[in-house]
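Q: I'm writing up a methods section and want to include an example of the input and output format. Could you take the sequence below and give the corresponding predicted structure tokens, formatted cleanly so I can copy it straight into the document?
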Amino acid sequence: MSMGSLTLSTLPYHFRQIALWFIVVLGCGYTTGLVFVAHTTSLTPRGVQERYRGNQHEGDSSSSSAAPVSAGTSGPMQDSAQSTQSVPAQEEEMKFEKSLPEMLNITHTHMLAMAAFLVPVACIFALSTRPSRRVKSILIVEPFIALLVSFASMWLMRYVHPGFSYLLMASSASFALCLYAMLLLSFIEIVRPVRGSSNEA
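A: Here is the clean output for your methods example:
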């Protein structure tokens, strides 16, 4: 079999099974990662900013702005004030800004890991025949570009301006959409091979 005729539909049965279950497991694992991101950032620009820039300064300002009860106050007014202060307010989780070593660790571990699973996904998708050549090129190349933009915007958001959180969210969304598209289209072609292809049952 020549490389020109090698497609997902013409792959031997066991190779298609490997590709199929790799896609399923990877899709579940990546979705779990997205759930974790949603839990830690609420998928909002402010949540993303606090994840890397922290919110400890906001906590300090809010606590210092609380009005103290006068020590000389007595009677019902003092009791009322003390009872009001004794009710615990719902405090926001304290988050601290990422240090340089933490930023370096996040960048190199996540970038290498995401590139490592993106390459086999792109290779499997490259063997699909249903999408057009142009669509395949966009879906294969865009996640790599989005990956670089995401980590660049993460650094810019941390050290330059918090507004880069919008670029981080946009590039991350582009990465996720392209990845899910490749997984879904590959899954469909493996489960329902193109008619007329010769493969082992």
